[in-house]
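ok trying again, last paste got cut off:
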Amino acid sequence: MSAEDVSLALDIAEDSMQKAITHLEVELAKIRAGKANPQMLDGIIVDYYGSPTPINQVANISAVDARTLTVQPWEKNMLSPIERAIIASNIGINPQNDGVLIRLFLPPLTEERRRELVKRCMGEGEHSKVAIRNLRRDAIESIKKAQKNGLSEDAAKDAEAGVQVITDKHIALVDKHLAQKEKEIMVV
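nice, full thing came through this time. structure:
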């Protein structure tokens, strides 16, 4: 294994760690922080004539104000399946169907609910950190394998140090995202 291969392994590790950060950002966006956000409904799947379809592909979702979301189906007969999907998604909001569109009124967050949401964010952050550490382990294993196949000890040590620097950078990014989301949730 040459220095190019080691560089490639580091690039792959960094790219994969960045994907873990992106996944964390998507998951944190789904956790509501007191104000209405159309992304809160991203994980909801609607039965569209027998095929499971994401809600944003069968309706227009918009935030009317800080506490209200509206779901405007593109076909009127999709109101009921969308309503059922929202109820089944268990996001803690009861949809109100007026025959034209569905309104979702977000209740104000209690202190207890805010703490639960922060705990959920921390859990998502921990999943991301575990994924990043697993990627670090995989990269270091490939470097050790390369060392057995002729890579010099110094080059291997430098590569491992590089992997650790990349890992530390991404763990710090996870912590930054979590602190930002916790602040967003706890602001009353």
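cool. The chain has four helices and six strands. The two ends are 55 Å apart (CA to CA).
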